[in-house]
Amino acid sequence: MDLPGKIALVTGGAHRVGREIAIALAQAGCNLAIHYLNSEKAAKDTASAAKAFGVNAAIFRSDLRKLDQIEGLFRLIDSEFGRLDILVNSAAIMNKGAFQEADNEDWHNTIDLNLKAPFFCIQKAAERMQINGAGAIVNISDLAGLRPWREYPVHSISKAGLEMLTKVAARAYAPEIRVNAVAPGPVLKPDVMPDSRWHEIGDALPLQRPGNASDVAQAVIFLLENDFITGETLVVDGGSRLS
Known about the structure:
Elements: E1 7-11, H1 16-27, E2 31-36, H2 40-51, E3 57-61, H3 67-81, E4 86-89, H4 104-132, E5 135-140, H5 153-173, E6 177-184, H6 195-203, H7 213-225, E7 233-236
Parallel strand pairs: 1-2, 1-4, 2-3, 4-5, 5-6, 6-7
Helix pairs in contact: 1-2, 1-7, 3-4, 4-5
């Protein structure tokens, strides 16, 4: 896919990894629909940074855990841009807790945002992409989707589901629409983690350093541009799975 002039929706595009993806897409010439829920100021800042590359960027608030708001989001994008070429499902939550402590609220908050929302966003995006006969979708997964994390049971389950969703959607929408995923490793330090611990994690990797959000963004760009890849997960983890 040639990216200049394409219309891209990035869910969770206001900050952290989602912001870096949005900025990379803008730098590649894409016009942006930046989704957010509570981070309006960050979304506006991201849109402003994107516009510096000469593209159009608009922000859209939506609670993706609710199907009617997903539908509303895509109607607003229709009104603003008239079409959609790219979807990046980046919005997610990651709550820590023992398996036995997880309750109904934990389950629904995580599964609804991390798995149900990408499913229905793909549906809505594909409807629009099929009109133009082409499109590309990238889901932001996690190493937790490839191997279980004991302290993040519901998160791990949600990301494992996203891995299968990527493959099922790739089969369902081929050949017009390609669907892939990126599974980041340690690329962005949690706000509550001490710097010393973050460096320890990086030092333990085969590449002996942590990554950064730009590494994920560049992986997304690669998957969008390469027209002969679909149904795959590109792991960006500094070799973490080798140890």
